[in-house]
Write a structure and sequence with these properties.
Elements (H helix, E strand, L loop, with lengths): L7 E3 L1 H11 L16 E6 L5 H4 L4 E8 L32 E2 L2 E13 L5 E14 L6 E13 L6 E9 L3 E5 L8 E3 L4 E10 L6 E4 L1 E9 L10 E4 L3 E4 L6 E4 L4 E6 H17 L12 E2 L4 H12 L16 E6 L15 E8 L2 E8 L7 E6 H17 L7 E7 L1
Length: about 400
Amino acid sequence: MNRARRCLVAIVSLAIAATTLTGTAPPPPPTPAPSSTPQKNCRPTAPGSEVRKDGAVMACVESSPAQAPAATGTAGPARLTEPYCVPDQENGTFRFGSTRHGYCTEKTVTYTLYDEAGATLGTGVVKVATFATLDPKSRTWSETVQATATEVSSRVGALLIGFEASCSYSCTMDRAKAWGGKHELLNRGQSKDDYVTYRTTVANGFQSVVVPRYKVDLYSVGESAPGKRDNEWNGLTLRCDAVLADPGCIVSGNMANVNISIGRYGAAAITYLWAQHNLYANNFGTKEKPLERNADENAAKRKRYQTCDAAPDPMVRRPDLVPDDSCDEFPFAGSFQGGTNGAQCAEILPFKENGGWQVDVMEPRSNAPCVRSHVPNGDNTGAGGEYGRAVQSERILDGEFYTVTVTE
C-alpha cells in the first residue's frame, strides 16, 4: 500500500465550528402532542353566590397554548429558570421546548363570567407552566408547577386554582396534587409555585412511553364551586426504560448526542471530526446522517476487525510515527453503519504540530464510506470509554440514532 503523504490538512479551525455542524438534531414534535384546540368547560354559577348576585349566571374555563406577549411585554416565561423554558416565538406562539433531559410546557387557562344574554362580565387569565429536569439514572422525577395570574378583572376579583397531575402507561404518582390538594389564591400579577412527583414502573429489560396529564380547576373567589370546571391536557411524551444499568427516562423527540473532546481524546477526536468534514456523502454522526447504536458487542468486535485488520489490506501499525499506535475507526464499530472492509476506507494519521492539529492523508480513497486512523492507544480507548458513558447518560438503546459532536 502506498503510504506516501498525499496531502496535509489543517483542521484546527474546524474544531470551533464542530458543534454547529454536528450538534444534536432539532427535535421533531413530541407525540402524542398536547392538543392545540381550546377546551372549554361551562357550568352555571351557584345560586346565592357573590358572582350570581353580580349578574353572572354562567362561568367557563378554557385552556389554550400560551401566546407570544405583546411588544410592550407581559408576565411570561422570563420568570422560568430552566433553559428549555426559553420560548421560540416563531409563528407568534411559544413553543416551550425540551432537551433530551428536561422539558417545559405552558398553557393559558382563562376563566370567564357571562350574564343571561351571554355577554362577558369579567375574565381572569392564568399561565400554568410545568417544567422538570430528568435524572437519566432515576425512576423518579419532580416537576415544578407554576401558576401566574396575568389578567384579573374587577368583577372576577381574584382567582382560586387547583392542580393535579397523573400519568399513563408504566407510571404512577408519588405526589399528584400541588399545594397539598388545596386551591391557591391568585391576585393579578401573583405567581405561586409547587411541585408534583412521578415514578416510572417500567419492568426490567423493557421500555415504555409515559405521558403526564394535567388537570386544573379555576374559579373566582366570588364562587364556591371547586372541582366542577376541570380543564385537562397532556404534557410532552417521555420514554422510560429499564434496559441499561440503571432505570431512567428521557424526553421523546430529542436525539441523543455523544460529545468527544479534542482536549481529552486528541487524535481520536480529530479522526471523527475529519471524517465528518471530508467523507462528504458519508459524514456519519451528523444530524443529516446520525449513527445507529448496535448493542451487540460481538458484532462490534467483528466490525472492528473488518475495518482495521481484515484482508486484503490490513492497516499496518506505525509505531515509528505514532507512539503506541492503534487503529481507530469511524463510523464506530459499535454502530450499524460501521464494519466496512478497510480496503474501502480512507486512512489518515492525525498529529499535532506547532500547537495545531494536522492530518496526513495516507490513503485518500475517493468517496470512501469510512476512515481508519493511526491513533495513540490511550486516545482510542479513552474516546471509547467516553462513548460508553454517553450510552448510559444519554440512554441510547439498541437501534437508536445519535449524533457525535467533537468539542474543543
